[in-house]
């Protein structure tokens, strides 16, 4: 075979997945249709859980000091984002171009290969491999790998060629969106007028992000992006302002399409990001859910191609991420009704605004939007499957944290008992998983209380198992990290 994993799509999701695969030791080639990185920053919002995951890989510091706003919204209604404690509360503004640049540098630095100007034309699963036919300026070619992952967006070529069912509903309403230079309009945050919804945000570089929806106007059947004249007309109809003298840098239309792949895996072909679920990008959730898909999938697929995965591990990708995607689609549809509905939703908006005055309501909705409440696995276990929060720790070798321990994307068995005999016992237990699971004996720093317990951390920053000072982690190690070495 040419490589172990073929990833189609060099957007943020595909690039993050490529890096995760390389951390797990998998060979990966990324095929991208575009010959150069996009210059359009359509998605620019990162939520708390995504920032935590990037921090697990040491990727937050290189972002510099992105702007953060703790004021979010639910369906256009202002709402302070709250929920479980996190170092990244709020919405972080990172242009898509910057995120892609960072992820590309990281993934390529880890050894991933990126081939631009490759347009996929056919996908075939043959015996124990996947064959991908593509075309470039130089002509056609074929690439063969053990697995193929489609990270190629909402109009995914991989999804269609591999025959994934994509049930759901098509758009009935839409927003027109553009970045425009040379206009002077007031900043607007979900301003509702008698005729529609208007949003405007001017950046420090003088570019203004414009979004507009006319109440009652159905989504158009489009084969191309809308014209600037169409945007000018809708903006005038909703605000009464003339922006015809502006220069659009890019523009598009997006609607309330709600579709989700019936399965995230079909044999040796998998989907992640918008290829697996298509939704209205309200509050930037589409990008964040996709990035979280990549982190969940990467370590599992790397273990599979490396021959280390226990039976069924790769199938947990669909089992864990499909319910998350379904829940996000439901929450976004509720927001869409509040956001794009006309006067008929005014009463519902008023009641929702009253509910948002309650701390518990804001905490619940904020957790859903930010991804901090995501939990995998059996609800009967009180902690397993939950995200591992940042905990400052002290080890015999010095200070560290759960965040730093996850940097290599390996399992971590964290012994917080403070008992040398327990540490010796766990050293014998983990000896069968060298390179897969690292044993760390630590105590919580004074300002970071933690239970006196044993915790098994998955590479994606979720808790695989928790036990007291005498519990045996062996079954959990086998379940998540496979058969121990002889």
UniProtKB/TrEMBL annotation:
Gene3D superfamilies: 3.30.70.2450, 3.40.30.120, FAD/NAD(P)-binding domain (3.50.50.60). Pfam families: FAD_binding_3 (PF01494), Rng_hyd_C (PF21274). Keywords: FAD, Flavoprotein, Monooxygenase, Oxidoreductase. InterPro entries: FAD-bd (IPR002938), FAD/NAD-bd_sf (IPR036188), RIFMO-like (IPR050641). SUPFAM superfamilies: FAD/NAD(P)-binding domain. Residues 2-329 form the FAD-binding domain. Its cofactor is FAD. This is FAD-dependent monooxygenase.
């Amino acid at each position: 075979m040419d490589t172990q994993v073929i990833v189609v799509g060099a957007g943020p999701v595909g690039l993050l997945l490529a890096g995760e695969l390389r951390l797990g030791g998998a060979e990966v080639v990324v095929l991208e249709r575009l010959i150069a990185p996009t210059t359009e920053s359509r998605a620019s919002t990162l939520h708390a859980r995504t920032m935590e995951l990037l921090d697990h890989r040491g990727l937050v510091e290189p972002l510099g000091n992105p702007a953060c706003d703790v004021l979010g919204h639910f369906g256009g209604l202002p709402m302070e984002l709250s929920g479980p404690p996190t170092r990244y509360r709020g919405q972080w503004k990172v242009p898509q171009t910057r995120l892609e640049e960072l992820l590309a540098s990281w993934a390529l630095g880890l050894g991933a290969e990126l081939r631009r100007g490759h347009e996929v034309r056919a996908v075939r699963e043959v015996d124990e491999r996947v064959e991908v036919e593509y075309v470039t300026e130089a002509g056609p070619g074929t690439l063969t790998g053990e697995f193929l992952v489609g990270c190629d967006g909402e109009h995914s070529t991989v999804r269609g060629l591999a025959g994934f069912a994509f049930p759901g509903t098509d758009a009935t309403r839409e927003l027109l969106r553009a970045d425009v230079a040379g206009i002077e309009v007031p900043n607007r945050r979900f301003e509702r007028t008698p005729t529609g919804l208007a949003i405007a945000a001017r950046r420090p570089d003088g570019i203004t992000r414009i979004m507009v929806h006319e109440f009652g106007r159905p989504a158009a059947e489009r084969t191309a992006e809308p014209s600037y004249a169409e945007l000018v007309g809708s903006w005038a109809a909703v605000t009464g302002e003339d922006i015809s003298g502006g220069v659009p840098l890019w523009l598009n239309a997006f609607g309330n399409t709600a579709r989700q792949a019936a399965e995230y895996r079909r044999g040796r072909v998998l989907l992640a990001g918008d290829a697996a679920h298509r939704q209205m990008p309200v509050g930037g959730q589409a990008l964040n859910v996709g990035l979280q898909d990549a982190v969940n999938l990467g370590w599992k697929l790397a273990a599979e191609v490396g021959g280390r995965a226990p039976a069924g591990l790769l199938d947990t990708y669909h089992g864990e991420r499909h319910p998350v995607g379904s829940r996000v689609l439901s929450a976004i549809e509720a927001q869409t009704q509040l956001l794009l509905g006309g006067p008929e939703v005014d009463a519902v908006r008023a009641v929702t605004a009253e509910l948002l005055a309650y701390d518990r309501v804001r905490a619940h909705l904020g957790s859903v939007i930010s991804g901090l409440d995501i939990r995998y696995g059996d609800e009967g276990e009180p902690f397993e499957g939950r995200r591992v929060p940042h905990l400052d720790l002290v080890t015999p070798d010095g200070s560290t944290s759960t965040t730093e321990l996850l940097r290599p994307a390996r399992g971590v068995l964290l012994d917080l008992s403070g008992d040398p005999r327990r540490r010796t016992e766990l050293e014998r237990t983990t000896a069968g998983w060298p390179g897969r699971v690292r044993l760390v004996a630590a105590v919580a720093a004074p300002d970071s209380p933690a239970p006196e317990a044993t915790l098994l951390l998955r590479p994606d920053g979720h808790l695989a198992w928790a036990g007291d000072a005498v519990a045996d982690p062996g079954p959990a190690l086998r379940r998540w990290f496979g058969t121990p070495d002889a």
